[in-house]
Structures are given as C-alpha cells and as structure tokens.
Amino acid sequence: MVKFPDTPTFAGYNEPMRFEADLVDLEVEGEVPADMNGAFFHVRPDPHYPPKFGDDIYFGGDGAVSAFYFDHGRVHFKHRYVRTDKYVAEEKAGEALFGAYRNPLGDDESVKGKYRGTANTNVLVHGGKLWALKEDSPPVLMDPWTLETEGYTDLDGKLTAQTFTAHPKIDPKTGQMIAFSYAAKGLCTASIAYIEIAPDGTLEREVYLEPPYYSMIHDFAVTEDYVVFPVLPVIGSWQRLEAGLPHFGYDPNKEMYLGVMPRGGDAKDVRWFSAPACFNAHVLNAFNEGQNVHIDLPVGQSNGMPFFPDVTGAPFNPETAAPMMIRWTVDMGSNSDGFEQSAPIAPIPGELPRIDDRYAMHPYRHGWYHTADPTKPVDLPSTPADIGLFFVNTLVHQDFMTGAPQTYWGGPDIVFQEMQFVPKSKDAPEGEGWLLALANHGNSRRTDLLIFDPLRLAEGPQTTISLPFMLRSGVHGNWAPAENMPTT
Amino acid sequence: MVKFPDTPTFAGYNEPMRFEADLVDLEVEGEVPADMNGAFFHVRPDPHYPPKFGDDIYFGGDGAVSAFYFDHGRVHFKHRYVRTDKYVAEEKAGEALFGAYRNPLGDDESVKGKYRGTANTNVLVHGGKLWALKEDSPPVLMDPWTLETEGYTDLDGKLTAQTFTAHPKIDPKTGQMIAFSYAAKGLCTASIAYIEIAPDGTLEREVYLEPPYYSMIHDFAVTEDYVVFPVLPVIGSWQRLEAGLPHFGYDPNKEMYLGVMPRGGDAKDVRWFSAPACFNAHVLNAFNEGQNVHIDLPVGQSNGMPFFPDVTGAPFNPETAAPMMIRWTVDMGSNSDGFEQSAPIAPIPGELPRIDDRYAMHPYRHGWYHTADPTKPVDLPSTPADIGLFFVNTLVHQDFMTGAPQTYWGGPDIVFQEMQFVPKSKDAPEGEGWLLALANHGNSRRTDLLIFDPLRLAEGPQTTISLPFMLRSGVHGNWAPAENMPTT
To answer: Residue B142: which of B88, B82, B185, B199 has the closest Cα?
Structure first.
C-alpha cells in the first residue's frame, strides 16, 4: 500500500508528483517567440514509491523528465519517468526495493548488483539521444521526442567506467561531449575516468587517474586545452555506509585539491594543486590563457549541503556556506602546488550558475544564477528542510564586464529552478536571446515556465507559459535547438 | 495562443485540467479490497481550447476519460482525451474550430459536416470496448486498457440513427445494451430511435418513432418488458440557434409526455401519456408489474438547468427545482392518457441517482444519490455559476424498504461526483459490496476516490485513494468488473 511519510522531503513543493503527463498547447500569457524552436528538457527526483526505510533525502527520488517542445509559437509538454532498472523493478513489485541514497547495504536481495541509479540529476541531447544522468551510474538514453527509455548504455561496449557525471560539457567548437566518472571502479573507489565522446555519441577516449582521496565530484571544469577535477572534502566510505551514515559528509579538516590535465593528456600528465577545505557544487565556466587555467565558480567556506552533514558535528551555517562567485587560477607553467583564489567577482552570492553555452570553455561576459534573498517575504506551505543552498526566490544576471548585477524576485510563494539561456540565433552576440526559468508556486501548486530577456532580467518575464499543476522541485536541464533534435 | 477566459465555467473546481496522465500505484489510506478487481471509468468535459466565442457552458468541454484500474489491492490511473473528430481537428489547428454548445452555425468552414460530439457524458464497457458517449453524436469506441480512441462507430453500418444516448442500460439478464437516439434524423429533428445491441456489440434492432415535439431526452427508463421515453419541455429549435440562444430552454407552459413501448414492439405500439410540465434529468430505476410500468426518478417542479434558461424569462429557482424522488406509474392496460405520480418516496431531494445495477429493470430496494445540504458550511475557491442542481456536498443512501436515508457530508471544500455501486460478488445480496465516489477538494486541488460500505454510508469512507491533482468536475461513469474487460 503506497503511503508517503509526513516529512519535509515529501511536503509542500517537495511533494511527490508521481504522474506522467502530456499536454498539447500549454496556456500562454504574452508571446512565445515564433523563431524559438527546440525543446527544453528538465529533470527532477520524484520518488515513485515511499522510501524503503521510512524517509530519505530529496535527491533519492526517481528521475522524471519534463520536456517543453517549442514549435513556432506553440509549446507542448511531456513528462515521463526514466525507466531505470530501479524504476522497472520497483514498479513491478509495487514498492521500494532499493535502500537509502547511495547505500546498497539495505537493498532487497532481488535487486543486488543492479544499477542503483535514478537518472534524476541532468538531461541533455547529444548524438540524437536524450542522456538522463545520475553520477552514481552510467548514462541512460531516451528518445528526445517520446521520452521512451532505451536503457543504460556502455556506448557500444567502450565505456568501462562504472559511473558518469551529471555535468558533462559540450565543446562549442568541436561538438564533443567532455565528461568524467568518479567512483569509476565501483562504489567508494577513488578512481576518476576522463571521457571524450564524439558528436555522434561514439566514445573516443577514456583515461583513468587517481585523486588524493574519494570524494563527491559533482561537477568539473573544462577549457579549450585543460580539464580540471575539483576534489573537495565531501568524503564517503564503506565504513560510513556500514554505520548507517549518509554516504557523504563534509570534512573541514581535509585539504581540497584541483587535478589539472591537458585534454589530450594522460594520467601521468595530471598535476594536483591544493588549498584548505572549501565547498563547491557547480562550475560557472572555465577557460585558459596559455598555461593559466581560470575556473569561475560559487565557493562556500563551509558545507553547503546539510543533508551530507559536517563530520565534526558542526551545524549547517548558511552564512559561511553562502557561495560567492570567485575565480581560481592555476598556473600550469609554475612549480607551485597551490593556486590563486580571487576575491568575489560578483556582489551577490548564489548557486546553479549558467552561461551562454556557446561561450563554454572560452572567455565570456555574462552569467546567470539563483540566490536566496533573505530580505524578501516568504509565504510557502512548508519550508524545505534539506535543500540547503538550493532554495531560491531570486534570479541573478551578472555582467562580468560592467560588474553590475540585475535581479528578479519571484514572489513570496515562488521557488525557482535552474535557468537556461537560449541564443536568439547561432551567431547572435553573447547573451542575446531568451532566458528560461521554471517557477514553482508553492501555494497555488502550479509551475510556470518564464521567458526573460537575459540581459534585462529586472524587467520581469515577457512570457509566462503555465502548467495546470506543479512539477516537483527539479534539478538541472538543457535546451536542445531544433537542429539538434532527431528527425521524426 | 491559448488563454482561457476568466469566467466561472473555467474557474475553481471547473478549471480545465487539459493534461493526460498515467500513474502506477495511487496513494492509499486504508485498504483496497484484494477481491475488488476491475476498472472504474469516469468522464468529464474538459475544454482543450478556450471557446471559439469567448465563453461557453461547462458541458461544452472535450470528453476526457479517467480510468482507475483495480488489481488485487493496487490501483493504477490513466487519463486520456477522447480523440473525437472535433478534438483531432482542433488539436491540429491549435485552437477551437467548433462554435457554441450544440450550435453548428458558428463552426469554422473547415469542420462543417463533421461530428460535433465531445464524448463527454458517459463511459461504459460493452462487448469488450469502452463506449464514450455524448447524446448529440454516435458512440465513440475506445480500448478499455490503453484508452486509445478507435473512433466513431456505426456498428458495422447497421446504426442509422445520427445520435446515441449517454444513458444506455445493460439488461442484467440478457446482457443486451438497451439504448435510444433523439434528434435521430438530424439536429433538432423530433425523431427518436429505439436501439437494441447484443452483448458482443452487434446492433440487433433499431425502431423509429415520433414524439409530440423535439426535446432534450437525456435519459430514459427500461423495464423487463417496456421502454419509456420521457419527453419533458426542455425544448430546442433552429430558430433558437439562429437567434444565438442556448440550444435548449425550459418551457413551463408545455405538457410533458411519456412514450411507452413494449420492448419487442414497434412505432405503432407506442402510447403517449401526458401531464403538466416538470423537470427531470436522470432515471433511478424502472420495472413493470404486468402492465403497470413504474418509473422512479428525481423530479423538479421547475427548470433544473439554469444554463438552459426558462423561455418565459423566469429566473432559476432552486427551491421549486429541487428534485424529489417520486414514482410514475403508467397503466398500459387502461385507456387513460394520463399516469399516476406518487408522493416523494425518499425524504431527501437529490440527483445523479444510482442503484445496484444487477437490479436494473426489476424491483429493487436500495438507491444512492447526491444532494446539496444547505445547512453545511461551504469553503470553495469559487462557486460554480452554471451547474445548478449538480453542485453537491452530500451523498445519500436511501433504503426504500425501511424508508430510512443515510448521508455523508464531505467537508466544506468537497464537491462529489457520481457514485458507483460495485457488487462484492456476482451473487452477493443487493447492496452488498462497495460504493465508489470521487471527491474534489476545491482548495487543495486534489481528487480522492473514496470507497464506502454502501449500506453504511454514514460511517464515512473505509478507503481513500488519492490523486496528486484535481480532476475537473465530471459527469457519469461506470464500473467494469475484471471479467468484462478484454484480455490483454
């Protein structure tokens, strides 16, 4: 009998959605640009069944993909669960068979050895397929139009790494997907694999390397010539799993490391640079000027994820955790094992950073991210206990040339989800286009997809596309221009 | 650009739902009986596009079928639009092409001559197909498991009537579907066709007859030996359509008639019995004792449908319109052209009457219906302007042997939808089983499917099956026991 527990993970705007849906012609206020053609894919953890052990963290939910298809001014919607091995086995059983988040020790005997992935973290189109990604398992491929799941892929037997990041980068010049794997040789193994995939989805290169210790490597940085693996002290171990602790914990007493490798290089070419502990989840952008490698990203001075608690027992501190955009610069020409950390490069703290992806890996001017403005009133049916820094009521545009930010506050019951920049055309100047943001209205239980002028964020949305229900809080997503979608 | 008007037809719990949905394993409070196997189908008008002329009545919406599949204690949900000719043409165009409710004069040139039906009034399984019915068009057949639409049917070319009632009866002894058509020879024609369909869906008989005048014949009565067509003064005409009036209007100065025909009879065997004007929408049950034909039904003394206004301009009067259950008795052995009308046979007024369908056409003891209890508090986001007698907060069980009613009030924000009796087994005594009722929570925007003990209604639901969204207010539905569902 399906009955969810009465805990914050499943309440208010984190309430499980659980249904799959289709809607032709979403309701629209304003105009949908007729030349904005393609699809916006977004994924959310959405538990199909109540957790096997009563409660679990928000990120344990089954991946459910939302697709907004933009077709010459009309917008159609489709929402489907990813048919992971986990989803299929549990649906057959009618209950949860897998135990706690990233801990296989409590799994039902019948699913031992199956992929535990939920494909709930990111989705993007590459090589004509929709890749649904969770960093603890290989990629799952889906049909971008029907959202039917093809299943886990080992890329024609070429992918040996056991996991795949949820944050691969598309090289805007070569069209390659640049990716990596951590825990590449199995759960809690420290091994990293660097992965290059051709525009058609063929695996081109897989290079193994060993970091100083096992940690959660949620995102990484790629420039035209280098790749950077941030090893931050979000640690994990079998001992923790056996003790029934959360898979990850933050250890403020451990050094952090950056592993930098030339993109054409090998394990022997990796150099490790270190600094005192800090916290980061996502990378804004990176580029290199010769041997100087710049990584721009939001960094906090203490743990940013309260659901992965500080191992010293220190409570979550939103003030020290507040992530400021800074620039890390590694000089690959020097003999130092340290690197430069800049002062904040933007006045407003925040997370879920995005850029005009055509400028990925290269010098760029504009960034967009979310912030939680504490001066604004909050009127929500419940306050999420476990989201930490990702509860956000305000969108930020940062012009790194002028230094000036613009913000847009959503309203007292609105929680935003990650933004997406869509260029007006292939050759439009940086930042010229549209900015998409999903807004969850906690009280009226609805989700709007808002379209902004990316460089005039403060003016508010020019178009509101409305769903007649609320999507559960989601994670990441990506736009696929019409020319990247497979022909039907 | 899709944008619904801000009118009561599209507000609050009448807000269009518009999406199609699938959900495996609905959330359940209490127990779903493991031996309750089959499917509960229910249909609602749900406008896919805003009305062509700004506003329209609630009943103009496109038919959207909800299916609850009961499988050994698990309940799965599916919701699909019926792909009527109207739905398909409008979806392609991205806007409404058909004009006002039952008025073709405003239709777009591109759809002239197409069926205008919305299949939005009733659904039932017969001959292995799901029949989706709207009384202005032929039946639409669907797959009961996938809810895929097969399309309009003329029953292998045998059905010549141009319309088909939304209230056919299944003869519990023969398994035949007994049906009829009004406006059988085209819009606003007075002609009626009587229709018999075999258990396998084959048309067996079609008999034409002419009533005294054209009227809305929404339901009819069938006994073991007779069929009764109630011609009540809910009149319509081309003149009204040309004047832009609602298709139907109530004329309190016209006589009403009952046309009674032996089931094996022909047009020449029909006799017409008359009385002063009154209003009825649905029939509870009917049976005959020899030549005495009893028809039990809720009857009001003035118009019950404010959206089809009184032609004299008299305003809607909820007090005189309140439908009381009474018994009409026609003596087919007498020479009179009148008939007997009983005093109320139940103390509580109400509508949407249902019985244990195994007792249809035969003497019976139990009835269930809805009532609007004016003594109870109301807390709804908006009050429906056009639903008239069908806004109901209370369920009623009437034991016609003891005379005693039981009631269940839902709560200040609950609007119920039509109940469904499900027998515990084929041979269980009358009334022994389960009673299903959909409850719309107007404020939290959710629909629950409640299971009651049919004979202990006042005790409240024993089981609550929850949808994570609200279905738009619906109309009729039916249970299909597992043995009536096609094998998959």
So the answer is: B82
- For the record, the structure tokens of A217 come out as 């490597």
Give Cβ neighbours of residue A416 (< 8 Å, ≥ 6 apart).
Answer: A370, A392, A393, A394, A395, A410, A437, A438, A439, A440
How far from each other are the two terminal CA atoms of chain B, in whole angstroms? 40
**Token pair of B461 as six digits:** 């639901």
Q: Do B246 and B57 form a contact (C-beta atoms < 8 A)?
A: yes
Per-residue pLDDT of A188-233, as tens digits, reads 999 999 999 999 999 999 999 999 999 999 999 999 999 999 999 9
Written as six digits, the tokens of B413 are 């924000």
Where do we find the tokens 């091994």?
Answer: A191
The three state secondary structure string of A163-228 is CCCCCCEECCCCCCEEEEEECCCCCCCCCEEEEEECCCCCEEEEEEECCCCCECCCCCEECCCEEE
Least CB–CB distance from B19: residue in A4, A18, A23: A23
- Return phi, psi of residue B274, to 5°: -130, 165
Strand order of the sheet with strand A285-289? Answer: A285-289, A292-299, A324-331, A340-341
Q: What is the pLDDT of residues B169-202, one digit of tens each?
A: 999 999 999 999 999 999 999 999 999 999 999 9
Q: Answer yes or no: do B21 and A25 touch at CB < 8 A.
A: no
Q: What is the pLDDT of residue A391?
A: 62
The DSSP output letter for B240 is H
Quick one: which H or E segment has residue B449?
strand B446-452
Contacts of B25 (CB under 8 A, 6+ apart): A2, A48, A49, A91, A94, B74, B75, B76
Q: Kindly list the structural domains of chain A, giving each domain's residue range(s) and its CATH number in brackets, ordered by start.
A: 8-484 (2.120.10.30)
B31 touches A: beta carbon within 8 Å: yes
Q: Tell me, what's the ipTM?
A: 0.95
- Bridge-based pairing state of the strands B20-23 and A477-481: unpaired
Residue with tokens 């309203």: A411
Place of tokens 């005093």: B343
Of B3, B4, B22, the CB nearest to A19: B22
Which of these, B440, B443, B445, B471, lies nearest to B18 by C-alpha position? B471
**C-alpha to C-alpha distance for B141 and B138, rounded to whole angstroms:** 10
Contacts (Cβ under 8 Å, ≥6 apart) of A67: A39, A40, A41, A42, A77, A78, A79, A144, A147
Q: A297 is written with which tokens?
A: 């990203």
Strands A248-250 and A221-222: unpaired
CB contact under 8 A, A3 and B445: no
How many other β-carbons are positioned within 10 Å of the β-carbon of residue A98? 28
Q: Measured between CB atoms, does A268 come within 8 Å of chain B?
A: no
Residue B386's pLDDT is what?
A: 46
Whether B160 and B181 have beta carbons less than 8 Å apart is answered as no
Taking the CA of residue B152 and the nearest CA in chain A, the distance in Å comes to 22
Q: Which residue has the tokens 């699909």?
A: B80
The residue of B3, B19, B97 whose CB has the most chain A CBs within 10 angstroms, and thus the best one to mutate to test that interface, is B19
pLDDT at site B384 = 55
Residue at token pair 């001559």: B113
Triad A220, A225, A231: Cα angle to 5°: 25
> Cα A339 to the chain's mean position, in Å?
26
CA of B447, closest CA in chain A: separation in Å?
Answer: 13
Contacts of B427 (CB under 8 A, 6+ apart): none
Checking B102-106 for CB contacts under 8 A at 24+ apart, the result is: B102/B136, B102/B187, B102/B236, B102/B241, B102/B247, B102/B248, B103/B241, B103/B247, B104/B187, B104/B241, B105/B241, B105/B242, B106/B52, B106/B53
From chain A, the residues in CB contact with B25 under 8 A are 2, 48-49, 91, 94
**Interface membership of B91 toward A (CB under 8 Å):** yes
Structure tokens at B145: 């498991």
